[in-house]
Amino acid sequence: MSTGASAGEPRAPVYREPGGNAASRRSDKPPAPTPDTLDVRYLPSFGFGARSLMWWATAGLMLIEGSAFAIAVAIYFYLHDVNHAWPLNAPPPDWRWGTLNTVVLVLSMAPNELVKRAAQRLDRRASRLWLVVCLLFAVAFLVVRGFEFAALNVTWYANAYGSIVWFLLGLHTTHLITDTIDSAVLAALLYVGPLEGKRFVDVSENALYWYFVVLSWLPIYAVIYIAPRIHP
Amino acid sequence: MNEPDAALPSGASARANVESETSDADRRSLALTWADPPGWLGALAAINHKTIARRFIATTFASFLIAGLLALVMRLQLARPNNHVVGPDTYDALFTLHGTTMMFLFAVPVMQAVAGYLIPLMVGARSIAFPRMNAYAYWMFLFGCLTLYGAALLGAAPQAGWFSYVPLAGPNYGLGKGPDIWAQMITFTELSALLEAIVLITTILKMRAPGMSLNRMPLFAWATLVTQFMVIFAMPSIMLASTALILDRLVGTQFYNPSLGGDVLLWQHLFWFFGHPEVYLIFIPALGFISSILPTFARRPIFGYTAIVLALIATAFLAFGLWVHHMFATSIPTLGKSFFTAASVMIAVPSGIQIFCWVATLVTGRLNLKTPLLFVLAFFFILVIGGMTGIMLGAVPLDLQLHDTYFVVAHLHYVLLGGAVFPLFGAFYYWFPKVTGRLLDERLGRWQFWLFFIGFNVAFFPMHWLGLHGMPRRIWTYSSGMGWSGLNLLSSIGAATITLSILLFLVNIVRTHWRGEAAGCDPWGGATLEWRTASPPPPHNFDAIPVVHGRDPLWDAPRNPAYVSGLAADAREVLVTTALDAEPDMRPLFPQPSIWPFVSAVATTVLFIGSVFTPWAMVWGSVPVAVTLTAWFWPTRRQTAQALALERKP
After folding, report:
1. Is A127 in contact with A121 (CB distance < 8 Å)?
2. Domain spans of chain B?
3. How many Å lie between the alpha carbon of B23 and the closest alpha carbon of chain A?
4. Which residues contact B200 (CB under 8 A, 6 or more apart)?
5. DSSP E strands: which ranges in B432-513?
6. Closest CA in chain A for residue B206
7. Domain B25-327+527-650: top CATH class
């Protein structure tokens, strides 16, 4: 097992205990060897990707939200299945705003990747610059999303088709809004806040979540805009 | 393996004394660093996982007592034909609150609450992962309980049963605010459970003591890990289902309205896609209790560790393929019914593997017949009966006859009490000394066990017959000519016996508080790490993080290195290890106690309750939520300065 020991200045304060009383509590064994310890003081205090706890929390969140999206899509096709006509008493949604928004979302992955890389270099200036660019994209896709709702060609209370289409779009929009707020808070912290290394991990994992929000849109786009146009 | 209660030789104890003296200052410093702040404001800001878990367990247990009292009123009502203790409306509210509370406010959360206490101790960690989120999850759970019961006391009790079927709970039939309160109670508790799942998974995969590779992890940690993944995949279904229900009722969506393209069976599919795995969210942690208790009282390592782990994982997968067996009485295709029958019967295979492993452990061990073991042995008896009636109900023709009769009530209580509550009581007796430092009284424990065991069978076994004789569930009374009177009276006597047993349990707890026997670190001679530290454990759990060299760290021969060194005593430093092999990887700094998780939970509660009355609460209510969550996140200059002083870049 690696101890992580290497050259470096010892830090104060250092906690050291060469073995508690439990170490030698089993008497019918040969006498315990002199206790020596696994020194971890030279380990890093933060790290990126699957090393960090924040990555695991983000991954767990993505699993939960991914399940929610998958079940919402399953509800769509279940309702599709129990009805003879689809879409119910409504023309399919106007595809233009939705397609425009898909382009905006996909393009936002470029500054998002630059944020992620800057964060992993611990580069404060580049991180906040590209995060602001991401936020500009966020403003764009939230505005276009408003037009998308207006172009669905059905109300949520008209019938079950309208309900599930609004539900899918609303569910995804909730993610866009929360991710925009998260990113705005992080950008503000990068400009004014007290900063330590692990905040770059937060920025990096936020970028991972941005990818999730963008990529999970693609199947939802297909369900909302393409599925009602397919007539088997 | 070792004799667990052998004495220390003088040399070893002398050395231990010297060492404990030299580290006294550090120990005090660690305890000070990790303790929760004093005062009532400090109590609201507490984030220590043991503090939160104690509150969580107490809250779930209070729910258990309340739901039990509701059941007692129902049994009183049914004890005689044509009884009028309560009327039909009250009776509907009683069984709905009883089922809802037992499932959503007791059985699922109590398992997470117990895990929140034990898991960091079992894996040798100073803290649970994301301690503030853990506190927030608890507050959300508590406010969910208060919402349900507050509304019930104000006359808005849900009355559509614990699975709240539409159209009964829909906008046309579910009058009043009861169904909305039920749906928001789901939102509260599922949010709490999903956050707990993330907290527990991260703790188990990233915060194990060095050397505790996955194949050395305690079986309770495995059971918890498997369960939390099930939570992640199952609970979104019920959250979407209840959100759709509340939208139907509040803003006029048509998800469950057949006249406008909706479908009522959609509710049943979504509910049971969660609801069947939910049974295993309750059952699998209980299997983990059993796998922890048995080796200690059989005084040997568990038989078939790998087989048990694989069986747990197989059970989790199969649990997602069973939901339609709750819907055999609906109009689904025959092929579907055959598939789900096969899947339902298949789950007997992994369950059987585990039972044989436990039997092998018991048969080859030297039994130490204490109260925890009694509860586990009762599990075998009761669960086998519940499992057999389960196989009967898994067959479509029989299910059509017995659906919605008392046979189902008998079956589900045999499975849930036998499968989860009996092991849970065993776990209470087993870990109580770790939590409080005192042993529960053994004699009272035995009395409690036998009253519970006999009372349980007297209460629920007659229900099989009642069901076969056609008594439907959820009827508020019956006429004397039905031939159900004698068995119902017997069942009510059983319920009274269970009540007596639970009273005895409470007496035992109170008595132990005053004159219980001091437990010491390891009263039972257990093999897992929680028995290495003091009872109750200090705020920092371990004076030094142990290094693990085998599957039963307290029974294995000591090897070097025995402990981790180099973590700060005056800062909340923890050790993070790699997910598979638990090699030391990082030493991040953990957050300080904070009032913001509590305040955020209050803000979220306002949002959730507000949205029962107006959809605009989703808009104005989310502003305080965003503000409080940001305040929670925003680092202070002092904490950042401390972090920078300890920082080391990757």
Report:
1. no
2. 25-327+527-650, 369-519
3. 6
4. B112, B115, B116, B119, B128, B224, B225, B228
5. 438-439
6. A53
7. mainly alpha
**In chain B, what is the straight-line distance between the N-terminal and C-terminal CA atoms, in Å?**
41
Rounded to an integer, what is the distance from CA B342 to the centroid of its chain? 28
CB-CB neighbors (< 8 A) of B130 in chain A: 53, 57
CB contact under 8 A, A15 and B567: yes
* pLDDT tens, residue by residue, B67-111: 999 999 999 999 999 999 999 999 999 999 999 999 999 999 999
Residue B274 near residue B234, CB atoms below 8 Å: yes
Tell me which residue has tokens 């979220």: B604
* Partner-chain contact B202 A53, CB within 8 Å: yes
Residues 6+ apart with CB under 8 A from B313: B226
DSSP B386-449: HHHHHHHHHSHHHHHHHTTBHHHHHHHHHHHIIIIIHHHHHHHHHHHHHHHSEEPPHHHHHHHH
pLDDT tens readout for residues B392-428 = 888 888 989 999 999 999 999 999 999 999 999 999 9
According to CATH, the topology of domain A49-229 is Four Helix Bundle (Hemerythrin (Met), subunit A) (1.20.120)
Taking the CA atoms of B596, B601, B602 and B606 in sequence, report the sign of the dihedral they define: positive
Q: What is the dihedral of CA A159, A162, A164, A169, to 10 degrees?
A: -160
Provide the residue count of chain A: 232
- Looking up tokens 């090897």, which residue turns up? B559
Q: How far apart are CA B247 and CA B442, in angstroms?
A: 52
Whole-structure pTM value: 0.92
Confidence band, pLDDT 50/70/90 cuts, at residue B1: very low
B594 touches B47 (CB < 8 A): yes
